[in-house]
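pinging the channel bc i need a second pair of eyes. not urgent but kinda urgent?? the chain im working w is below, pasted from the shared doc
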Amino acid sequence: MRAAAFAEPGGPDVLKLMELPAPQAGPGQVRVRVRAAGVQPFDTAIRSGWLPQYLEEIPYPRIPGNEFAGVVDQVGADVTGIAPGTEVLGFTALFSYAEYVVVPAANVTAKPAGVPWEVAGGLTAGVQTAELAIDGMGLAGGETLLVHAAAGSVGTAAVQIARRRGATVIGTARAANHDYLRELGAIPVEYGEGLADRVRALAPGGVHAALDGAGGHALEVSIELVKERERIVTLVEHAKAAGLGVRVVQGERSAERLARYAALYAAGDFTWTVRRAYRLEEAADAHREVETGHGRGKVVLTI
């Protein structure tokens, strides 16, 4: 099979199109012919040489990618309810930047017909991260949530999830993305000096919780504005979180959660923006774009 993989850690240029053995589905697993795979900061960290503690050492060449959509083409023993030919979207830790990926059957859910491949391939990380973060901070109706990097994929999901729960959302973004945030239901505010004062003016009742997708000054502002630090979740400042008393995202991704948001998208009740779709052989360019830290919505690979 073709895969975008790397033989040693490094910058985006280490990602190369390679011919590698195709995986085979074992007991309890399905193999998916991938049509689209999401690209996210988790993947760029993997490419740079980082591995999360829950993963054993992975031999090189390594294939990044932890979200995908495609068509089931192999079903292992003990798998019921999923047949070859089923269109699915799902998640894993690695290996999605490839023509084939093997995952536990519990990691996939049927793709609604109204969800395009590019949307399906990049949906899971944003919606699962956002909902786990919002659940962890205990956001309630009537409260105000501050979302940094609100126009990104996780931010896009977080704004909508919080609004569906009856919260007011203030979202930081560049001025070019302010109309987009208004369409999602957020009150936009621009980054930069004086951010804390601008947010205070928009939230006379105070800010109850914050989701930090930007780090640095954004996290500092969150700490200044939110009284209970355990109600601040950072997506980027993992090394600083414990020392500052703020949270990181915790909890398990689930096919049930993914299915809910895919159904909402298909019904027209959830917005999901694909910023750009790259071909598999352009994976290095996709990583360069993600590493800029700017842009609206999701970057995906099509395969």
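so The radius of gyration is 19 Å. and DSSP finds ten helices and 14 strands in the chain. — does that match what u expected or am i reading it wrong
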